[in-house]
Amino acid sequence: MNPAVGKDTMHPNPAHTPRTPHTPRTVTVAYAGGDERRGPLTMGQANMIRCILRDDPEHINNHDVWAIPPGTGLDAAIDALRTLALRHEGLRTTFPHVPGAAPVEQVVAGEGTFTVTVLDHTEFPEEPARYAETVARAARAGRFALDREFPLRITVLTLGGVPVHAALASSHAVTDGSALAVLREEFLALLAGEELPAPASFAPLDLAAEEASPAGKRKSEASLRYWERIIRTEPQEMFAEPRAAGADGRARQLTLRSRRGARALAAAAGRIGNPEATVLLAAWCALVAHRAGQDSCVTAVPTSNRFHPAIARSVNTLSQDALLCLDVRVPSFDTLVRKTWGAALNAYRHSQFDSVRLWEMIGRVTGERGSHFARDVVFNDVSVLPATLLSAAPQNSGAAELELTWGPLQVLPTRMLAFTYETAPQLHISLWADPALFTPQEAEGFLSGLVRLLEAAAEGDVPLGSLTGATGVSPSERGPDWTRVDGCWASPAAVRDALSGAVGGLPVHIDTDQEAGLTAYIARGGDTALTSAGAHEALMDKLPAHGGTGVVAPRRYVLVEHPPAEAHRSDAWRRQQIIEEGAGRSRQVRHER
Questions:
Q1: CB count, 10 Å around CB of 199?
Q2: What does each C-alpha distance from 291 to 135, 331, 443, 452, 476 come to in angstroms?
Q3: Phi, psi at residue 175, to the nearest 5°?
Q4: 381 phi/psi in degrees, rounded to 5
Q5: What is the pLDDT of residues 87-107, one digit of tens each?
Q6: Which of the four pLDDT bands, split at 50, 70 and 90, describes residue 388?
Q7: Strand partners, 381
Q8: 159: which strand partners?
Q9: Cα 486 to the chain's mean position, in Å?
Q10: What DSSP designation does 21 have?
Q11: d(C-alpha 154, C-alpha 64), whole Å
């Protein structure tokens, strides 16, 4: 799965354009003395390379900005970068492959070179850190050459020759956001004259060996079984509702900074007796499921795969989701928090898997279940990581009780993404919410509602049936036509229109039965070649790859010669002479808990 969402294309702000930049110059940096190694890919590398070869580079590449301490010379900054390259094998790794084929191995160089672009200025814009952010984001454009390119594109911004910021873009095949945070922390430690201890986490090749061990293979198999159970039985789309059809894939960043929220989270955690991270995750899941009108919250929690010490500080891409499924059908928030701890641990334990086999399984379940899995919700709590992912952009140091600020527009290949950067002394969360689903006021209301839920939980147990009143967040409105099918929300009208379009405009009627699910009646007329299996295949081919809003394939297809006179009545269709019928799917699905 791809957790690199919410960090995509930003439209530069003219106010952040440098006023007097000089011509950039390129410095070539040589390194030597490292170990040469080669071997297979890690599961995370294979997962991300799959995405890199498919997705827009501005979507998949990462970036970061490192503030350089005053008084640091350019040579010192470059020496620190050279030290990082020698220290971490991932930065010396390339992925040889023939054109048109995906890499299957990685090669670690013992020596080599990389370049640093130095961009000097006589004057910076009013917000240098935000300007540095635009430089870093711009460097994300263009694919990294996996077989030969150094995985960091580094620009050092100087003022009168003095370094101020390092703006970086990185290949997601080598680093994820957490790895960049580790590099930033070590870069600053080197500039401060500190001696770094030997790396304690796996290098990529060491992790690949662990994954290929018998224990690693058993872990991967268990992860695939865990994922399949969720994808086969839980909601395929969290936000299956009429408004979702208007999404265009872009959302603006909304940032919450709240000392109120931090105090409430600490008090709620103390009262309930669970860690703050668990309480916050429970609150997030409760509010998402409430807003989506679902009985469970299915959310990806990508950074959780760094919970083990052997990989916590690894400079590597560990981009494999943990998939959390939390049943919210409990009476109160305290009960949900206690369930969340176990559910989260279960998700974390099952976040190592063969991504190719995972997607094969998802494709198989798609055909058998009749609906596409959509990675609608992502919750990334990076506040608990060893190195913080706080942006280098200026942070508010004042005592903001509750402040909401809007940021740039970005590509959002998911419906809802949140990054929690810190929980003390303020609760700092950035949210990207699909504007088709959330107006600006609703997005702001969601984050302020999260704070209100924490405040209520700090005072006492909160009945989950009272979330609308407690938070101000209302459930989605779907209308009387919508129904639950196999644990998913479905619109029979949307199914009818999609199926009719898939079979060339033939008349279709969808009969709804809570026990039998959806039954599709198709008046095939002179199309004697159409079968129930063919109708199902045509419908699945028509569904968008990331979920058809409200479209769930019928359990049963019934072919008749002509539509009845009263084509809107199910009983009229049932009285028609049946030509052929069948399940269409290769396996019947039951929603079980």
A1: 15
A2: 37, 17, 11, 15, 6
A3: -130, 150
A4: -95, 95
A5: 999 999 999 999 888 899 999
A6: very low
A7: 420
A8: 121, 162
A9: 25
A10: B
A11: 10
Q: 392 in helix, strand or coil?
A: coil
CA distance readout (Å), 446 to 32, 95, 326, 378, 430: 52, 43, 19, 15, 12
Q: Which two tokens stand for residue 475?
A: 């459930």
Distance (Å) of CA 102 to CA 50, 95, 96, 318:
7, 9, 9, 18
pLDDT for res 464: 97
Q: Report the pLDDT value the prediction gives residue 352, as an integer from 0 to 100.
A: 84
- What integer pLDDT is reported at residue 302 of this predicted model? 80
Cα–Cα dist 58/167, whole Å: 15
Backbone angles phi, psi at 342, to 5 degrees: -65, -40
- H helices of 30-176, in order, are 43-52, 57-60, 74-87, 128-138
C-alpha R_g of the chain: 26
Q: For 459, list phi and psi in degrees, rounded to 5.
A: -85, -30
Q: Alpha carbon 391 to chain centroid distance?
A: 18
Rounded to an integer, what distance in angstroms lies between the CA atom of residue 357 and that of residue 334? Answer: 37
297, 378 Cβ separation under 8 angstroms: no
Q: Cα separations (Å) of 259 from 25, 325, 460, 472?
A: 44, 29, 19, 20
Question: Mind giving me the DSSP string for 343-377?
Answer: HHHHHHHT----HHHHHHHHHHHHHHHTS-----E
37: three-class secondary structure by DSSP: strand
C-alpha to C-alpha distance for 425 and 239, rounded to whole angstroms: 33
Residue 417 CA to residue 3 CA, distance in Å, equals 10
What is d(CA 252, CA 59) in angstroms, rounded to the nearest whole number?
15
Distance CA 382, CA 76 (A): 29
Distance in angstroms (rounded) separating the CA atoms of residues 49 and 60: 10
| pTM above threshold 0.85 | no
